[in-house]
Fold each of these.
Amino acid sequence: MGRNLRKSYASRATSQDFEIYAPHATFEDPLMCAHGVNQIKSAFYSLAKVFSESRIVSYSIEENVISARKAEILIDNKQYYKFLGRDIDLTSLIKLYTEDGKIVRHEDQWDKKPLWNRETVKAPLVGHIIEASKRASMFATHALMRFGKDPTTD
């Protein structure tokens, strides 16, 4: 699982690297919220279009078993991006929730801050607006990335 994620964050993922996700999995970061493997592919395939470089430069992993079939994996990490010639260093906490060995929820908390949504902000209306903007961002990304189509298959 770790190798697949490092490849995804480094813009080198192949379709096989997304087999770690359950079909109904979700991915969320401060900019977008993806539902299903094809949208998750679009989110990660888009990194190469936005950044000239991207990667996880260091990380530590902690696994918490919730039950026989469920676990929470916490990846404390530092990410590096190059955007328009500028270096961007980002501290992040990746939270993976698994069921039967597959990721069902993937959260990337930038600066280790909880994601904003209707359940985490004080005003639920603000949370709904944030969620709507994340869905719109994901829809635009998904369309631009040919709806999760793998880059090697044309």
Amino acid sequence: MNAGKNLRLGVNIDHVATVRNARGSSYPDPVRAALISQEAGADGITAHLREDRRHIVDQDIASIIEAINIPLNFEMAATDEMQKIALNHTPHAVC
């Protein structure tokens, strides 16, 4: 078995945004979490943009894309609105 050779770490930052939103504050910052993950060696970031914006919000996506230089993967519903956002931001992958 080649364990470790092909393993890559993707960090999902949704719950960082969930805590921020529950607090009604600007922290913890999902962009900072993405940057810390990148600096720690993550191979990619995953963010779930929900239709109700309960976790990640639109501005988070734009800010994360601007801040990181590793792949950003979107988790999102298969709706026209989400498709438009994905096409506008061109993430590494969408699921």
